Structure formats: structure tokens, C-alpha cells
Amino acid sequence: MTPRAASRPLRLGLRANAAQFALLVAINALVGGMVGQQQTVLPLLAESEFGLTGYTFIFTYVAAFGVTKAIANWFAGTFSDRFGRKPVLVAGWLFAVPVPLMLIWAPDWWWVVAANVLLGINQGLTWSTTVVMKIDLVGPKQRGLAMGLNEAAGYGAVAVTSLLAGYLAAQYGLRPAPFLLGLFYTALALLLSGAFVKETREHARLEAAQHVGRADGIHDHLHAGLTDRQILAQTSLKEPALSSASQAGLVNNLNFGLSWGLFPLLFATAELSVDQIGLLFALYPAVWGLGQLVTGALSDRIGRKHLITAGMTTQAAALVLIALGDGFGGWALGTMLLGAGTAMVYPTLLAVVGDVAHPAWRGRAVGVYRVWRDLGYAVGAVLGGIVADLLGLHAAVWAAAGISAVSALVVAVRMYETHRPEPTPAA
């Protein structure tokens, strides 16, 4: 390292940290791809190779993934604040190494569940850490844009990999071809994370040193010295914006968890081909991923609250369309609308946490928020499975629509606006 590079001061902002930010975006795309490799394939594998017919039992792998990922999010936030971001990122990718091999060689369904436990740890550690690192780098002015780019990369990769995995499954069978994608993603991510990613914790410390509270004093009680227990309580229940974000995140991922396990089975009732099912499933995260390129930056301009309320309402309407549908056209419209609603919500909720949490404990706050959000996978899988077993697949979608509408109402009533765009200077 040259003396000039060694003395170069840290700066916050997307442009000042463009190279590292772009690298983290690419790594988060690989994180999303690890989920996409299995979403189209596993529900079909459950029925065709393992003979599973009960929806609740089929959804066990989604529940195992969601619970494990939720727990891993907590450790990701805590460890990244205490030990640094990069070690947590690398450790998360080490947990991914056995996952594709277990899915390829699984002799029974419990191997699939075990693989998803490891995948949940991988996703919790890696995705949470890339979120925190990007917030560290960009500072307070561009959080929405940063989260939009992060989530667009992750869920865009879910969509592309879901579509590609569906194609490989149709051409070469359900195993092993789709899961070879995961082997490649893991090897590449370990190389990039270990050799090229730089630690960003000092950027958070720089922001903490420059931190100025809101003029209205609304965050004065959220000072730098909160304990882990206090951070958990504020993010989960006490602080209106943080707790509203946590419940909305849970419901959002409830919809995703339900769709993960249920949509391929619902679409199969219309005797669609594997390719068509893969395309339908890919439309949801594709619109979600691309939409976040717009909605994240939009929240920096117009604020967070109304975008979140509109997004949860849009998700409820989309689920109604899917519940009423019975063929490719109606379901395609519904899944695209569901993706649009999710795009309004997903990066904006993360930006809310970044707005409210003090830089000294922001990693832990992001971890707690993501605990609640990713528990939605398990809640959606279990709720969807029970309702589908008792009342049918369409009834499970109706239940999710109702829950999404209630979530939108909670945000509208309880959350305050957390981001106040800077006024444009007078000419």
C-alpha cells in the first residue's frame, strides 16, 4: 500500500465507495441465487421423488429455512457490531458449501430440511452483513437507494436462477442439474468475499462521530449506549417506526414463504408445464427485484411511510387476484402485482431501520428487524400448509391477503415518517 493510499481519509457516500459497493451488490446477487436454485424445484421434487402429499409436511423445508435464517440474522447483527463485518460474511459462505451437495444426494426429505437449515444460516449471515456494509458505506443521505440496489440484486438473482433452474429441471431432470448452480455461486462468493471485500465498520464509526439527532427530538431516547436487550425491545415493540417495520417485514416474508411452498403446487393444478411454473414463479421476484431500483431511491425523495403502506395494500390486492385466478394469464398478472407491492416495501423497511437506529448499534437493529422479517418465512409456510390442508390452496392465499391488508393498516396508523429529505437550496 502506498503512503498516499494509507493516508486517504474515509468518506461516506455511494460515489466515494463505488468499487466496494458494487462488489457487495454482486455478492448479494450470489446470496439470492442460492435461494433461487431450489424454489421452483423442491416442491415438485417433494411430490415426484419423495411421494409427499400433505402441504404442511412439504412446507417443512421453508419453515426450517425461515427459523434458522431469523436466528442467524440476530448473530449477524451482533457479531458484525462486535467483531467486524467481513468475518461474518466469509463465515456465512462457508455454511453454504454443503447445501447443493445435500440436495443432489438427498435420500429422503429430511436431508432437504437439513440442507435448508444450513441455507438459512448462510442467508442470515451473508445477506444481513451485506445490508449493514452498504448502509455503512453510503451514509445517511442515500440509504433508500443503497437498499434498493442491494435488494434488487438479491431478488433479481432469485428470479433469474429460479427461471434457469426450472429450465435445467425440464431439460435434464430435477436432480442434479439445477443444484450445480449453487456449487458455482458458493465457490465464486467465497473467492470474492475472502480476497476482495474490505471491512466497513470504520465507516459506521465515522458516521457515529458525525451523528446529529433530529431537530424534533423524536429519537433522543435512542442514544449510542443501548444494551442488546434494549435494542431488541425498541425494534420489536416499543419504538413506533421500528416495531411497525418489524411487523410489516414479517407479513411481507409470510407472503414470500407461502408463495415459495404453495405457488408451484397451485400452478400445477392447472396442468401447467414445469417451464411455465418456473416462469410464473420467476415473475414475482423479477418485478420485485427490478422495482427496487426505483422504489429505494424514491423513498429518499418522498419519504418511507406512504410507500410502505401502499406496498402492503398492493400485496393484498395481488393475492386476491391470485386466489381468484385459475390459469396462466391471471396468475401472471397477480404475481407481477405482488412483486410490485413487495418492491415498494422491501428496501424502504430497511431504510427505516437505518434512519432510526444509531450507527453504534445499527448492525444489531438490522439483525433484530431481520429476525422478525424472516420469521415470516416460517409463519407463511406453516400457516399456508395448515390452511391448505384444511380448506384448500386458494383459501391459504385468501388468508395471506387478509393479513397483508391488516399490516398496511398498522403501518398507516402507527408509523411516523422517518426520512425528511433535505430542502432544495433556493436559486
TrEMBL record:
Keywords annotated in UniProt: Cell membrane, Membrane, Transmembrane, Transmembrane helix, Transport
Annotated ranges, domain Major facilitator superfamily (MFS) profile: 21-419
Segments passing through the bilayer: 12-35, 55-76, 88-105, 111-132, 152-170, 176-197, 250-270, 276-295, 307-325, 331-354, 375-391, 397-416
Any one Gene Ontology molecular-function term assigned to this protein's record: transmembrane transporter activity
Pfam families in the cross-refs: MFS_1 (PF07690)
Entry-linked CDD domains: MFS_MdtG_SLC18_like
PROSITE patterns (UniProt xref): MFS, SUGAR_TRANSPORT_1
Recorded topology in the membrane: Multi-pass membrane protein
Any single Gene Ontology cellular-component annotation: plasma membrane
Subcellular location per the Swiss-Prot or TrEMBL entry: Cell membrane
Primary localisation category: membrane
Domain of life: Bacteria
Coiled coil: none
Name assigned to this protein: MFS transporter
